[in-house]
Amino acid sequence: MSSTPGLFPGRLGLAASRIPHADRHGLLWLEYGRLSVEDGTLRFVAAKSETLDAGDYAIPYQAVSMILLGPGTSITQDVLRLCARHGTLIAAVGEGGVKSYTAPPMGQGRSDVARVHAERWADPQKRLDTARRLYAWRFGRVLPHRDIETLRGIEGARIKESYRLLAQRFGIDWRGRRYDRNNPAAADLPNQAINHAATFVEAAADIAVAATGALPPLGFIHEDSSNAFTLDIADLWRIELTVPLAFGAVRAVLDGKADNIEREVRKRAAAEFRRYKLIPKMIERIKELFDVHDSGGDA
Description:
Mn(2+) binds at residues 155, 222, 235. By secondary structure, the chain is an alpha/beta fold.
């Protein structure tokens, strides 16, 4: 840590060099650099990357909800201390948010999402209504059925047909969804690709759930999982994003344009998450699901 006294205008470029928020939710993406504290200010010394020019940047942490540390980043203990004091969450993530390596501690922010989430999950009628709302987003209309098992059955049939149609679109030989959790490598190429894509989209949902302060174990469609609600959110993009990502990667491998299915899916996912702004969209969906809206600040 430098012993240089206070930061004056223009000193180290910090006064003028502020990294803009990735979006209005207060998410800040950092990669390929070192994050430290200098004179009470978060300082990020960055190498040149696709998202940021090389330089010495000041982080306005008071206005940041969550710092996402991408590949090639390191931080000092002082960063953790400062962010914990001000309720700023920190998570280590893969490129584009395709992996979530940490469970961020709860900050000192708002609890409105968590409170509404718990209330609706605890009431059987509200829990079913919330599940029906999630299905309505996925199917484009509100289904009249009021039994969760019936809804799950309809979901299974629709997903099966969607897989078939998407496989036709990408020219892939599709023999059905098959997955052995004890031996995932035994699956055929399309199923391996779907497994990888689903893992990456779930990581993005992990980040969105943490950023909003929702409760991962309390799912409305999924049950008996420590990240059941994360799976509920990830599935909103299964047909729109997850399966097309997977089948596009399979097509690239079959055409000889790629040789590793996991690497190809990960590369495509990172690019698509950025282009599509997936995590911000997930955050908006979570807030909309619980009828919680911004009132001048971030969740």
